[in-house]
Amino acid sequence: MPAETLKSEHKGMDKNAYKALKTAEHNTISYILSSATVDANGSIECQGKLSIAGTTLDADLTATGQVNADKSISVKGSKKISMAAFNMKPPSFMLGTVKTGNDVTVQFNLTLRK
Length: 114
What we know:
Layout: H1 14-20, E1 30-38, E2 43-52, E3 55-67, E4 73-82, E5 92-93, E6 98-99, E7 103-112
Antiparallel strand pairs: 1-2, 2-3, 3-4, 4-7, 5-6
């Protein structure tokens, strides 16, 4: 996904977040699935590689999925990540008076269609 489609709860922070994400050099965030298991309740356990800001790490994800009436599949979940693990410096704005922590939670909501 394009990294600059990520939005925070603080609109003024987004530009600085994109700088931390190094979007000028690495404009996408990707997850390459290597394996997954789905249970009868729609819980999905995924293993794969997450790439952010030019760093790729193994990452497990837990999501929920459901088949919709139009035969599309909705998948949603979240992943807590350490910015330091991806070689990023947590962004700040207003001369450093507002800062993010090292850990952030990325939420995703996808609709898959054939």
